[in-house]
Amino acid sequence: MDKEKKILYSGMQATNTLTLGNYLGALKNWVKMHEEYECFFGVMDLHSLTVRQEPAEFRKNARSLYALYVAAGLDPEQNCVYYQSHVPTHAQLAWILNCFTYMGELSRMTQFKDKSQKHADNVNAGLFTYPVLMAADILLYQADVVPVGADQKQHLEICRDIAERFNAIYGDVFTIPEPYMGNTGARIMSLQDPDKKMSKSDENPNAAVMLLDDRDTIIRKFKRAVTDSDTAVRYDEEAKPGVSNLMTIYSCVTGKTMADIESEFAGKGYGDFKMAVGEAVADEMAPIQSRYKELMDDKTYIDGRIKENDEKAYYFSNKTLRKVHKKVGLTELIK
Ligand code: ATP
Ligand code: LTN
Most buried of 21, 56, 88, 124 (most Cβ within 10 A)? Predict the structure, then answer.
């Protein structure tokens, strides 16, 4: 543990495969973070249980997410990449924090409102207290920064509120985390409806590009992307949300600025532009996909890293949990 470095915490739910939005909004930005921060990244499998999962598929998805993290460049020897459900302190702290969180503030969460509409037949208590478990994830590691996409900002705010409330009663127990958002890519929109975020759970398969889509599928999805009746490749989120979203994607992948992109496609139609975006994304995905395949076949390597990192996460998070137990007055373990 490098005491000099600030601590960074993040993770994703282990549901389905990742979208290009998850990659550009989160994962891609995580890869280099370990140079500056002591990093913890969880496979958030407990959070996935708020939606009913088919056990065998769920187990596969969680492993696949771990391999995708690593394939995308997250080195499990430089970063603590582990499974949330393997580290019991998360559920333990979440319970305590539940007792410091109000029903009123949880009912204001937009994700809760959206998801309870989407899964109207299963509005469970876990969905309601989802942000409390997320707060526990972050606070256990005394994280200074939490890199997430724009949709998670409200969850970060409630995490800060809970931590401040707890600290106000018991002294400085938790570090108050700051959100960390990349400039571009924080909100990649659906290719079929640029007013909605690109989401794993979209019913329209053309709305989201998946990290494991093959080259032809990626290019086809971009060709079908909804744009507008104009022909100019110009960045204007209000008037041209579809084209602007494609420009954002192209910029994230190639590193080009919006001005570069406008001049590259000046006088060319949307067809050429969409093709270029599709190819650039497919080129970026190709090495990730082949590394992913190798990793999924290398059980020993992945299992070894998971075990090592689960232990590290437990050791670190348990220090915070013990402190919390003491502060709230739970009796100590008898040794
Ligand atoms: P769902 O769409 O089913 O709610 P999700 O795709 O948002 O799921 P999460 O596990 O909730 O998946 O998100 C993982 C990370 O990816 C978070 O940091 C989130 O902010 C980021 N993210 C998700 N979608 C996008 C997007 N369209 N653009 C940018 N970042 C995104
Ligand atoms: N809710 C997050 C996933 C998540 C998370 C976290 C992200 C669970 N716990 C802790 C950052 C820090 C999401 O991306 N949907």
Answer: 21
- At residue 151, the pLDDT reads 85
Among 7, 9, 10, the mutation site with the greatest number of ligand 2 atoms within 8 A of its Cβ is 10
Q: Which domains can be identified in the chain, with CATH numbers? A: 6-181+299-328 (3.40.50.620), 215-294 (1.10.240.10)
Please answer whether residues 159 and 131 qualify as being in contact, where contact means their C-beta atoms are separated by less than 8 angstroms.
yes
> Residue holding tokens 């032809």?
216
Amino acid at 332: E
Contacts of 190 (CB under 8 A, 6+ apart): 196, 197, 198, 199, 202, 204, 207, 208
Return the residue whose CA atom lies nearest to atom 16 of ligand 1. Answer: 22
CA distance 53 to 51: 6
For residue 39, is pLDDT > 70?
yes
Query: Which residues are known to be catalytic?
Result: 115, 197, 200
pLDDT digits (tens, 9 = 90+) for 145-190: 999 878 899 999 999 999 999 999 999 999 999 988 766 667 899 9
